[in-house]
Automatic annotation (TrEMBL):
Its EC number is 1.17.99.6. InterPro entries: 4Fe4S_Fe-S-bd (IPR017896), 4Fe4S_Fe_S_CS (IPR017900), QueG (IPR004453), QueG_DUF1730 (IPR013542). GO terms for molecular function: epoxyqueuosine reductase activity. Residues 165-197 form the 4Fe-4S ferredoxin-type domain. It comes from Clostridium aromativorans. This is tRNA epoxyqueuosine(34) reductase QueG.
Length: 324
């Protein structure tokens, strides 16, 4: 049996069925596009500024030949969930970095047993992971810039493994967006029209440290992240739910206690929210977003003694916006 089939069989045996392969190489075809975004200030602060680092997958392993892209579905049944105040769907379970890492480590162990060298990544390199997933044939990139897979739509996390084993690459899929523009119309800030400005993406704005007051009215219940462009996508309609139990949402992330988050202390944050997929961003960002939503939506919550000057600044700005 060839190595590719063996690796695929192993992935299937641990419940992963959306796996593809592409060459480890320099993605020169992306350089012009990334330079354009940089020159036109369309990059977000979370993006690596050095374009060479973003396009050269060979930098990550001497003798690396193949990148394996793996999709991890995270959507569970969601008819019952709260709609007015919400965490983005991807944030609700156990920190996906840890969950995905555990799977990738297993796959690496298997590849090493076949004699290959490996290195795995989950949000831990500067490479264009959606483009790599597209090149690996596991989905197409929609107009909303998400990777859209056949079985799970765009509700997937991505992980990559670089190996020195050479296997045949998969064939990229053609875009299926056609004339559809539902995500572009639905986006609350127009971030995916024209040149796609990452700085206008509400998911990014909810994660930024410094948020301009002009965005406060657009939070509209978003506590962290934004699913609008995914929710309207027809390819997210008839999809298969996740089989990864470790990614199942916590109850407290589905039925939000706004009062608790508005007044949250460090120990409650660490005990509960830190272990979720948005915990890495820290207490202040989530507390700030909760206060923005509580005040902008006129929720009946009592904001008690605010100690942090960072939170206090937002609170005062909100009072100013609301002319209270
Ligand atoms: Fe493509 Fe339509 Fe989905 Fe947007 S909503 S990603 S245009 S199919």
């Amino acid at each position: 049996m060839d190595c590719k089939r063996e690796i695929l069989n192993y992935c299937h045996s641990i419940g992963l069925d959306t796996v593809g392969f592409t060459k480890c190489r320099v993605y020169t075809e992306l350089e012009g596009y990334l330079c354009f975004r940089k020159e036109n200030l369309l990059e977000s602060e979370f993006e690596e500024k050095d374009i060479k680092k973003r396009i050269n997958s060979c930098e990550y392993m001497d003798g690396g030949k193949t990148i394996i892209s793996v999709a991890f579905p995270y959507l569970f049944k969601k008819d019952h969930i709260q709609k007015d105040i919400k965490f983005s769907l991807y944030t609700r379970g156990k920190d996906y970095h840890k969950v995905v890492e555990a799977y990738l480590k297993k796959i690496c162990g298997y590849i090493e047993s076949l004699g290959g060298k490996t290195r795995y990544f989950v949000d831990s390199n500067f490479l264009p992971e959606r483009y790599i997933a597209f090149q690996s044939g596991i989905g197409f990139i929609g107009k909303n810039n998400m990777l859209i897979t056949k079985r799970y739509g765009s509700y997937v996390f991505l992980g990559e493994i670089i190996t020195d084993i050479e296997v045949e690459s998969d064939i990229p899929l053609k875009s299926k967006c056609g004339n559809c523009s539902l995500c572009q119309t639905a986006c609350p800030t127009g971030a995916i029209c024209g040149n796609r400005d990452s700085n206008k993406c509400m998911s990014y704005i909810t994660q930024k440290k410094n948020v301009d007051s002009k965005w406060f009215p657009i939070f509209q219940g978003r506590l962290f992240g934004c699913d609008t462009c995914q929710e309207v996508c027809p390819y997210n309609g008839d999809i298969i739910y996740s089989n990864i139990e470790d990614l199942r949402p916590f109850n407290f992330m589905e039925r939000v206690d706004l009062n608790e988050i508005v007044n949250i202390d460090k120990s409650t944050f660490i005990e509960k929210y830190y272990n979720t997929s948005c915990g890495w961003r820290g207490k202040n960002i989530i507390q700030r977003n909760a206060i923005i939503n509580a005040l902008m939506l006129g929720k009946n919550v009592e904001i008690k003694n605010i100690k942090s000057s960072y939170i206090k600044d937002y609170y005062n700005r909100l009072l100013h916006v609301l002319k209270l």
